[in-house]
Each structure stands twice: as C-alpha cells, then as structure tokens.
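2024-03-11 09:14:02 INFO worker-7 job=invfold-0412 stage=load source=structure_tokens
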C-alpha cells in the first residue's frame, strides 16, 4: 500500500489546478498521486472566460478578444468588454502545461487506471484501483464516486448542458475581431439553443452548438443544425472539420455537500462549480483551488472554505425554472440584459461579484412576468407550459 499526502480521484481541470497550487505553495509538502482512467492527451474541450489582469495561464491563452457579439432572431449587439477581455484556452494546452509543471516538481505521480473505490482507513483516505490501494492524508474527488465506492445519489438534474463543437477550416477567411458569445439564430424548440463561435484565425474557427435542455429533451442530431448555421448564417459553403469536442453535463441548482467523511473533499463539477445558468466553471474552479490551499495552510485541513452564495443560488434556481418552462423566450431576456445594462455590470453579476445595487438594476431591467410565471408554475398555481 503506497502512501501519499494528497490523493486525486480524477485529473481534469480541477484536479490539475489544485495539484499545481499545492506544489506552488512553499508551506505545503508531501507527495501527490493523480489517478484517472484516461490519459489527457487530446484536445477534448475549450475553456472560455472573461478576466481583467493576469493569471498563471497567461502563456497558454490561445486568443483574447475585447469585443463580443450577441445575436437573436431580431436583435444584434456588438459588446465592447471595457475592463475585461474574453480569453480562450484549449484543453490540450492546459493539460500539457500543468502536467509538465507537476512532473518537474518531482513530487507528483500519475496513474492511468480505473478508480474502483474511495473509502476511509485508519487516519487516512484510501483510493482503490483494482487490487491496488493507495493511502493519503487527504483525498480530492472530482469523479461521481463517493467515499464508500458507490456513485453519488442526487436528484435528477433539471437541465443538462449539451454541446457539440467543430474546429473547422472554412473555404473563405473569416473576421477574427469579435467572438460570438451567443447566437440564437437557430430553432428554439424544446429548450434553449444557441451557437458559440470562436474565430482563432481567418482560416480556423470553433463552432459550438450549445443547448440547455431537460433530461427527456436532449438532442440526437447536432450535424444538421450546425451545417445549416455555418451555411445560412455564416455564409460558408464548404469547410473541413479538423477537431471535434462534445459533452453532456448535468446542471444542479441545489447546494452540494462537498465533504465526504473526514478525509475526502469534492472538487470541480462534483462540487457544483459548473454554474447552472451559464455553463461556465473555469474561474470558479481557480478560486476554489486557492481557497482550499489557504485552508490547508492556515487550518491544516482542506474544509475551511467559503460556501456558495445563497442569493446567487436562488437566482440560478429561478433562472433554471425559466429556461425549463419558457426556454424559447430566453433570447428576449438576454436581449434586454445587454440592451439595458453595462457590460461590466453584467459580467460582475455572472461572476457573482456584483454589488446589491447592481443586482437590483439588472433585475429591474428584465421582464418580471417570465420569472413570476415560472415560480408560480413550479408551485402548482399555473398549468405547465
């Protein structure tokens, strides 16, 4: 039985980030073990986020933009980001960057193998992979397995974030000055659907078909709407698909219990860091990682960390109700949001850092009847739509 200070069940974004922050802190010592059944050697996703200032990932940011586009069936907004820039990091670049840092430390071991159980031993956490067992003082879990070795039991998510992305080489050059943040010029049947377009270079761009859908309404065909959008909206007649990415992630609005036993802490999406109303998680994971390290240094355990905001959790629950029941109207709500608010106020609100006056101004700018109808419908006062 091999002994470590820190065990990681899963080495995706949250696990790699936390491991990097641990080895970067001179007050934390000990060996780390990263266990994942898959080797991170593919560009399987792209992370986008808005930010002002610098981050540890500056060297691997693939592109930055100061201007975004929002488009609806009858509206169009060109958005200048003022204090922020929108940044994109490719998955493979992040995996390679962090893996290189971790391996160079001489303190981190990687194991590509299935995780069969997570449990507690005497004064330690135990991670099992087949017949092999590994012990650690603390275990960070970004998988859907709890410390008894069974899948976590949650209520069914009200929505799923489903996406399919193509990195394409078009038959003609495209403008790279603006990133398309949301484009609702696609049929809005059975939920919220829009396109996200990232123009890396004139001859290379990412087209992502994104949908917030109820569990029984997940789409099966992404090819047809993607081809129609590329041809009819972008005016691209032919193209070559260079890379593909896809995902279907459950979106929970309830506050998750992160601590499992006395030695295990959930991180990443397993901790509820995928924001249910936006699908963004990158910055939330970075902030949480720093809070865990701060707790380890100051309190000698990882559990003294801030919980989610109850106010914003309530806002998310209400917004998810609107998306579930009136998804075809969401483009109107976003149209008013961008029309009546400054971009700084909007991004602070989405980051959950807006002041109370900013929150009130945003709420007053939106059509209240959709939110009241969704809440009353949920309570059984109205017929379901």
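2024-03-11 09:14:09 INFO worker-7 stage=emit residues=385
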């Amino acid at each position: 039985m091999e002994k470590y200070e820190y065990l990681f069940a899963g080495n995706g974004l949250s696990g790699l980030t936390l491991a990097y922050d641990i080895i970067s802190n001179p007050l934390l010592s000990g060996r780390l073990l990263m266990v994942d059944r898959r080797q991170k050697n593919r560009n399987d996703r792209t992370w986008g986020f808005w930010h002002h200032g610098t981050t540890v990932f500056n060297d691997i940011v693939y592109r930055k933009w100061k201007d975004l586009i929002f488009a609806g069936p009858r509206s169009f907004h060109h958005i200048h980001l003022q204090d922020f820039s929108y940044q994109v990091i490719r998955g493979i670049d992040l995996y390679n960057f962090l893996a290189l840092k971790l391996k160079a430390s001489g303190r981190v071991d990687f194991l590509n193998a299935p995780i069969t159980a997570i449990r507690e031993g005497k004064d330690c956490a135990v991670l099992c992979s087949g017949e092999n067992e590994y012990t650690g003082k603390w275990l960070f879990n970004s998988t859907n397995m709890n410390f008894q070795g069974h899948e976590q039991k949650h209520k069914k998510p009200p929505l799923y974030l489903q996406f399919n992305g193509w990195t394409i080489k078009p038959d003609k050059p495209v403008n790279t000055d603006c990133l398309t943040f949301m484009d609702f010029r696609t049929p809005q049947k059975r939920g919220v659907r829009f396109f996200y377009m990232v123009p890396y270079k004139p001859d290379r761009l990412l087209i992502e078909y994104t949908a917030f859908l109820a569990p029984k309404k997940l789409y099966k065909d992404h090819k047809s709407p993607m081809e129609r959008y590329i041809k009819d909206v972008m005016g691209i007649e032919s193209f070559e698909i260079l890379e593909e990415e896809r995902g279907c992630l459950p979106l929970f609005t309830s506050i998750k219990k992160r601590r499992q036993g006395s030695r295990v802490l959930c991180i990443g999406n397993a901790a509820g860091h995928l924001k249910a109303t936006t699908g963004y998680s990158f910055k939330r994971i970075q902030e949480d990682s720093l809070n865990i390290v701060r707790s380890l240094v100051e309190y000698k355990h990882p559990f003294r960390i801030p919980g989610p905001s109850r106010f914003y959790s309530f806002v998310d629950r209400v917004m998810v109700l609107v998306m579930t029941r009136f998804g075809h109207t969401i483009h109107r709500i976003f149209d008013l949001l961008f029309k009546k608010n400054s971009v700084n106020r909007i991004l602070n609100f989405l980051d959950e850092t807006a002041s109370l006056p900013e929150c009130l101004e945003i709420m007053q700018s939106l059509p209240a009847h959709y939110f009241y109808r969704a809440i009353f419908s949920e309570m059984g006062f109205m017929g379901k739509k």
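2024-03-11 09:14:09 INFO worker-7 stage=report msg="The mean pLDDT is 92."
2024-03-11 09:14:10 INFO worker-7 job finished
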